[in-house]
Design goal:
Chain A: Belongs to the ABC transporter superfamily. Chain A: It is found in: Cell membrane. Chain A: GO terms for molecular function: ATP binding; ATP hydrolysis activity; transmembrane transporter activity. Chain A: Homodimer. Forms a membrane-associated complex with FtsX. Chain A: It is a peripheral membrane protein. The structure holds 2 protein chains of 2 kinds. Chain A has 7 helices and 10 strands. By secondary structure, chain A is of the alpha/beta class. Chain A has a 6-stranded mixed β-sheet with strand order 6-7-8-3-9-10, sandwiched between helices. In chain A, strands 2-1-4-5 form a 4-stranded antiparallel β-sheet, with helices on one face. In chain A, strand 9 and strand 10 form a beta hairpin. Chain B is of the alpha+beta class. Chain B folds into 2 domains: 187 residues, no CATH class; 93 residues, Alpha-Beta Plaits (2-Layer Sandwich), CATH 3.30.70.3040. In chain B, helix 1 crosses helix 9, helix 7 packs across helix 10 and helix 9 packs antiparallel against helix 10. Classes of the chains: A alpha/beta, B alpha+beta. Chains A and B meet through helix 2 and helix 3 of A and helix 1 and helix 8 of B.
Chain lengths: 219, 296
């Protein structure tokens, strides 16, 4: 379903972030991208949502090379791929409901749809009691759940998680990992970048290790 | 109706920008109001100078004032000569008594000016209207050559002088308005850039969840349009308040000519024109900011 083919990324002054990465990811897979900081994990994820472009190579998503995708089609790509981040990227002046609804509003969904879909997805991530809370009134783990709910509201085929437990304590980290596992069981492909070895080792999922822009292990 | 839903959300987003950054809005509107109020005043000045010019252009006249003791017979004989040249449409004799009654009529609101004025101190005159503006110099020369004529007022000089002043006023006005318009565009550019920075996180989230680039851009472009609309409307309201006073001042200054435009049609035209120009400037400033700072 997703295929990275000969991906390189060279920044100005010749700094190489990725050096010929080939990677195939199947539908419904749960994949960890691991490696030290600067290994190229986040760069790979950014390519998938066309936040950045590789210097060479192709990225095939649903039989189409998204590297050459026209700019006006990028929003449609992003509606099929949800993404969550270490810093949650929640809007502080909006409630939990409004943060998730925001993702539907920008796509022109009507208020009735929003009123039905948002409580449904928030119930799935265990936040049905906190619809009217503001992000500052939530724990870090709850904030990450809101971000996941927002990423899932379009029912994306792929969920990208860039260090989603990076700002969380042990207990909250495991709650988020279990939630991602559950989302994967619903049929969504999950790609998670992390350098938390404990989580990776205990999950028994496919692990791709990146070092200095190269895949050094795929197990 | 997805289009209407999207449109209403863009408007909602625009209004959020305006209310969440009230000082940005205030600064932009005040600077643009200054520009468009100055523009409205310039339009009035241009209208006034045009009205004065037209008044004189449509009345190609030479007026000759006679020395005291010049007999009426002498003046009427000269009048006949002028009529025979074929260059004059009308030659009107105004006796000293008629001059006094004209003076009284023009200054009826100002009794102080009427005191001590008698027919003796006002000269008799001939008002000669030329068939064409070009004949004015011939008629003026004929009158000036007459020994009984004290003074000739020759409106070609007046018209030329007025034309020259009107041109200077227009050049200065356009330069001033151009300068203020440039300042307005730059201020809108800076303020929209600040709005983009203020709403940076919202923009980032919009992009991530798949908003189209125009969905992200439109509220910022509409910010500029609304700054323009508000400033043009405020400047027109200021004009509505000031126009009666300006009209009074102008009619005191130059009597007999309708210098200031009147009526609601003129104000609607001014409002429409300034709104169109202000919205255009606002959108221009916004587009420049969006192009520079909002890469979607």
């Amino acid at each position: 379903m997703i295929s990275f083919q000969g991906i390189t990324k060279v920044y100005p002054k010749g700094v190489e972030a990725l050096r010929g990465v080939d990677l195939e990811i199947s539908d419904g897979e749960f994949l960890f991208l691991v490696g030290p900081s600067g290994a190229g994990k986040t760069t790979l994820l950014k390519f998938l949502i066309r936040e950045d472009l590789p210097s060479s190579g192709a990225i095939i998503f649903k039989d189409e090379d998204i590297v050459g995708l026209a700019d006006h089609l990028v929003p449609q790509l992003r509606r099929q791929i949800g993404m969550v981040f270490q810093d949650f990227k929640l809007l502080e002046k909006r409630t939990v409901f409004e943060n998730v609804a925001f993702a539907l509003e920008v796509l022109g969904r009507n208020d009735n749809d929003i009123a039905q879909m948002v409580p449904f997805i928030l119930q799935k991530v265990g936040l049905s009691e906190k619809l009217d809370f503001y992000p500052r009134q939530l724990s870090s783990g709850e904030q990450q759940r809101v971000a996941i709910a927002r990423a899932l509201i379009h029912e994306p085929e792929v969920l990208l998680a860039d260090e989603p437990t990076g700002n969380l304590d042990y207990e909250n980290s495991w709650q988020i990992i279990n939630l991602l596992k559950q989302i994967n069981e619903w049929g969504t492909t999950v790609i998670m970048a992390t350098h938390d070895r404990t989580i990776v080792d205990s999950m028994k999922k496919r692990v791709v290790t990146l070092e200095r822009g190269l895949i050094v292990k795929d197990e | 109706m997805p289009f209407l839903i999207t449109f209403s959300r863009i408007i909602k987003s625009t209004l959020q920008h305006l209310t969440r950054s009230p000082y940005h809005t205030l600064a932009a509107v005040m600077v643009m109001t200054l520009t468009f109020f100055a523009t409205s005043l310039f339009v009035l000045v241009a209208f006034g100078s045009n009205a004065i010019l037209k008044y004189f252009e449509n009345k190609p006249q030479v007026t000759a004032f006679f020395k005291d003791q010049t007999s009426e017979d002498y003046i009427l004989q000269l009048k006949g000569q002028l009529e025979q040249t074929g260059q004059a449409t009308t030659v009107k004799y105004i006796s000293q008594n008629e001059a006094l009654s004209l003076y009284k009529k023009q200054n009826s609101q100002d009794p102080e000016l009427l005191e001590f004025v008698t027919a003796d101190i006002l000269p008799a005159s001939l008002e000669v209207s030329a068939v064409k503006l070009e004949y004015l110099s011939d008629l003026a020369n004929t009158l000036a050559a007459d020994s009984r004529v004290e003074k000739v007022i020759y409106q070609k000089d007046v018209v030329e002088s007025l034309q020259s002043w009107a041109l200077r006023i227009r050049v200065a006005g356009f330069a001033l308005i151009g300068f203020l318009a440039l300042i307005s565009v730059l201020i809108v550019l800076v303020i929209i850039s600040m709005n983009i920075a203020t709403f940076g996180k919202e923009i980032e989230v919009m992009r991530l969840v798949g908003a189209t680039s125009w969905y992200v851009r439109w509220p910022f472009i509409l910010d500029g349009a609304i700054y323009g609309f508000l400033s043009a409307t405020i400047s027109t309201v200021l004009l509505v308040i000031l126009l009666p006073r300006l009209s009074q001042y102008a009619s005191d200054l130059i009597r007999g000519i309708e210098i200031m435009p009147q009526g609601p049609i003129f104000l609607i035209q001014i409002w429409g024109g300034t709104v169109a120009a202000a919205v255009l400037l606002g959108v221009l400033g916004s587009l420049m900011a969006v192009r520079k700072h909002l890469r979607v």
